[in-house]
Amino acid sequence: MKVHLTFDIEVWCNGWGNLDGEFPRCYPRYVYGRSKHGDYALPKTLEILDRHGVKGVFFVEPLFSARFGAEYLERIVRLIDDAGQEVQLHLHPEWTDEITPPVIADVARKRQHLNYYTREEQTALIGYGKKLLEAALGKPISAFRAGSYAANADTFAALASNGISVDASINGCYPISAPELVREYGAALPFQTLGVRAYPVSVFRDGFGRPRPAQVGACSLAELRQAIQAAAVGGWSDFVIVSHNFEMLKPGQSDPDFIVVRRFDALCRYLAANRNELPTGGFGVDVATCPNGRPATPRTTLLPTAWRVAEQLMRRIV
Ligand SMILES: [Zn+2]
Hints:
There is one protein chain. The chain has helices at 19-31, 42-52, 63-68, 70-82, 119-137, 153-161, 179-185, 221-233, 258-273, 302-317; strands at 2-9, 34-35, 38-39, 56-60, 86-91, 143-146, 166-167, 191-193, 196-198, 203-205, 211-213, 238-244. By secondary structure, the chain is α/β, with parallel strands linked by helices. The chain has a single domain (2-317), classed as TIM Barrel (Alpha-Beta Barrel). The strands form 3 sheets. The protein has an 8-stranded mixed beta sheet with strand order 8-9-7-6-5-4-1-12. A two-stranded antiparallel ribbon has the order 2-3. Strands 10-11 form a two-stranded antiparallel ribbon. A hairpin with a 2-residue loop joins β2 and β3. α5 (119-137) crosses α6 (153-161). The longest helix has 19 residues, at 119-137. It is globular, with a radius of gyration of 19 Å. The two termini are 37 Å apart. Zinc ion is lined by residues 8, 10, 90, 92, 147.
């Protein structure tokens, strides 16, 4: 079973009211996360992957750079590409009405989710984001994830018409995430539709029986390990884990959250130790095709979930 360790890379400015005032402070936090302990945003993420010889996929949001300047996107992309990791496209269309000249005609109001846009608008926005990212990267990209997992069937058509063959937007725990496709294909195994291969974010049932996406910042290490093992035993071809550039930072700060840091380091150590059975990889040219299907959802036992709840309490206190 292939493990896709994915990261959504994005810059936010504490709302939309003071973009120019907030950006100079927010950009270094989101990209570097500098503190007296080290740089725990992108640099530490890349260092941990490198130390363990593990491959990740970095879905980078480029629209913010149309507001602030291409050099800010280039710095992000250089960090990732120079570390030998894969860069792909992430898109938060909330930026659409902040960009001049406008990419689409209707920017009268802020529309958060990509599936609030028509197929033609999505085609234009994805094409524009792809152009920005490929210019910064200097090579083509081939995979996509919508911001907030908010894709729909029109997104897939828009991807295909932009020559993007892989989507990783679907998350079965989010009702906004392509419900019409999830009804048809499920949200577990990869499937092919509208000229695009979908790799849903992997979801498992935790110790309380509740569905939970495999996210580094929101699961215990034992939950992630059990879910990966159960999926492999259950015959899954691919397991997709999600994280972000800021997931090892405390909320609103640049200080590291060492509970998440240790968890991510241990997850990479586990994947490295099991590299033959659980090879890590991206969504580039070598992604395998596999038949559509609906396998059982992996389950974890109670103890790893109880541990996660305890860690969540700790993170709030420390
Ligand atoms: Zn995002």
